[in-house]
Amino acid sequence: MESDLYKLLGVTKTASADDLKKAHRGMVRKFHPDVNKEPGADARFKEIQEAYDILADPEKRKMYDQFGIAGVKSGPAGGGGGPRGAGGGDPFGGGGGQSWQNVDPSTFEDVFGSMFGRGGSRSARGRGFGGFEGDEEDEVPQAGRNAPASETIDFTTAVLGGTRSFRVDGESIEVRIPAGIASGTKLAVRGKGGAGAAGGPRGDLIITIHVSAHPWFRREGDDILMDVPVTIAEAALGTTVRMPLISGSVQLKVPAGVKSGQHLRVKGKGIQPAKGAAGDFHAVIQIEAPKELDPAARELVEKLASSLPNPRTGAQWNL
Predict the structure, then answer these.
(1) How many CB atoms are located within 10 Å of the residue 316 CB?
(2) Whole-angstrom Cα distance, residue 56 to residue 236?
């Protein structure tokens, strides 16, 4: 990764949150794998996303400004640098391979373990007065610590689901991404955390998933939105536009007299959650007026303007 994250995003160290967001959006449009097929674009895109994740977080940005990337990776002082625990019951279900699901990072076992220490705890009968340890056979198996990680996936994979290969501490781990996963969701993989003590099992790997921005689509709940520019003539007369969806495409009928900002809905073509009905796809109309007109076009528009009703007639604020 570029040693200077500000330089990687093309901003200065005094950049505001809005400046970072604007620069990030521009970089996404340039290097997103869906639009840039050049060699190295995918790796560059991941670096951009990681840089933005750090600088957009006030605490991480403060750590980076003071200590550099090493300070961010080490986490806050006294903390474990990430979430722990994986909820109650059997969070991994059946089936082959490595199974994933959302987890709660705060669990009783982890809190209890942090009080007494892990990796070498003894049973009560194995300790003498004042905490001196007893015989080796009195050791109680202890599960290893859960290990935190953070990974970024593309928007399409987040919506449709799929399999991704992550590299964690030099090990390649192939994982299943559930369809409809939201940014910030924590997933767990069994037995890929810290080593246990006295024959205890390994802890789990807890991964916080970040979803990168898409150059066209954005998500609101289970709905997918996309801005659709139309000309003044298309807005007045109506038209038909072939629209891309996350999967496939659709012929969208734009009615005559459509307004800028109006939503045209395609039912059931949004995100399909694990439970419940699928969300919808929304084409958000954006009427774009030309900035320049040749003399002939200007004459036509002027003739049209004289025949159109004043849309402000009757408005209380109309002077």
Answers:
(1) 4
(2) 41
Q: Work out the angle between the directed axes of helices 41-55 and 17-31 (0-180°, nearest 10).
A: 170
Token pair in block for residue 277: 């009905």
Q: Is 37 exposed, middle or buried (0-12, 13-18, 19+ CB in 10 A)?
A: exposed
Angle between helix axes 41-55 and 58-67 (nearest 10 degrees) is 100
Whether 38 has a pLDDT exceeding 70, the answer reads yes
Taking Cα atoms as reference points, which of 79, 75, 83 lies closest to residue 59? 75
Of residues 89 and 54, the one with the higher pLDDT is 54
111 has pLDDT over 70: no
**Amino acid symbol at 230:** V
Tally of helices (H runs) and strands (E runs) in the chain: 9, 11
- For the domain made up of 217-293, give the CATH fold: HSP40/DNAj peptide-binding domain (2.60.260)
CATH assignment, 108-211: 2.60.260.20
pLDDT, tens digit (0-9, with 9 covering 90-100), for 156-167:
999 999 998 888
